[in-house]
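Sequence in, structure out.
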Amino acid sequence: MFYGTIWALLPPVVAIALALITKEVYSSLFLGIVVGAALAAGFAPVGTLDIIINDGFIAGVADAWNVGIFLFLILLGILVALMNRAGGSAAFGRWAEKNVHTRAGAMLATFLLGVLIFVDDYFNCLTVGSVMRPVTDGHRISRAKLAYLIDATAAPICMIAPISSWAAAVSGIVDESVMSGTELFVRAIPWNYYSLLTLVFVVGLSLMQFDFGPMKLHEMNARLNGDLFTSGERRNDAESMAVSPKGKVIDLVLPVLVLIVCCITGMLYVGGFFSGTPFAAAFAGTNASVGLPWGTLIALVFTVIYYICRGLLRFKEAMECTTKGFIAMVPALLILTFAVTLKNMTGMLGAAEYVYGVMQGASQSLYNMLPAIIFLVGCGLAFSTGTSWGTFGILIPIVTDVFPADSQLLIIGVSACLAGAVMGDHCSPISDTTIMASAGAQCDHLNHVSTQIPYVLTVAAVSFVNYIVAGFVQNVYICLAIGVALTLATLFVLRAVTSRRGTVNA
């Protein structure tokens, strides 16, 4: 009755709307799950409960991919607790105070680290957060702004990095009879306006040093009053434990470098690189939910041994960090559990089939407008379901059917699909990347969502206009130049408007 209709998108819409209205994420997600189960069961009470338990929570938690990501979160939480306890984070914060002299410098340093860690978005969120928190805290940058900087350099960066878990996922979806998946991904990069223009937006916003929307309040409160949180849950794990006074910068940098090397090695190992598979093919065939825990566990063991040998921690103190690290990740784990359960509901209701029908109908007219339409559909689907991978998994086969294999519009259409998937994933409250950005910044989750939505929508609006232009112009250099110019012009207008309002209010 409800399968494959617009009702399939009702559960996430209910959850997201309630979360933004009530500012309470757990009950909102649960009510969204209940709505989805009720629709799937035809409102039968017993059937609804059975779907919630068996097809929802148990199926979500038992899924091998989800288990691997949960394990990765826990292991990384423990590693961060160890680095805090050993004094490495505090030492890095002291170093940053001497060498990073401005708020803009701290934001750009966070942005640069996010760009450098392009292998995987989960890894990016938690690593950048743990490393840069002392730096941004020292310059009174709000946790909401830190969470945005992390999120803006997670999925958008991975989506334009040829060597990443995202590139592998996209390559695996493309029908090889149309074009090589890797070739299509690489050719789509300069047309991926949302990802590219987000980077321009972040750099411009940092250099111009202004904010708008709810973020402005958080930043003013942090800068003037030293309150990094403003509202919601306040967490600072480093303050809840004794810190070794002997910690040095190397005690943070070395474990992070080992973590990066081990995680990349783990992903290559799982992809078969050490069994003779070529490098690119190994990344294309890897499983991040196995490779990331694989590498993090090795880095964790190394870090414990290193800290004990350095005399920073005793073995018992290192083991105490296990529970503290796990506890620090409980909010992220809980939200992620609800989020994957909600995704199961949309899958059971046939959201993919509904979107397929909508796209096939749209392809009958406005042919050159299709990239812009595909972008909007990708945004809406990813925002509603919280998954960019699921979104481009649904849309890419449709796009490759709509456009001829040798056409420029095929490349633009695929890039619009990928850009829309990233945009929706970037700001959705039920997106795993958004959840992990909140965890990495130790920011209240709904604060992160509400403050970054105006920024995301601004770049999305510019990207939409650019895809309209691209559908007709189809010149990569002209279209990209127009996109960059529009983004910078928008920033100048926003700065003028916010300055004028500040003057009027004063």
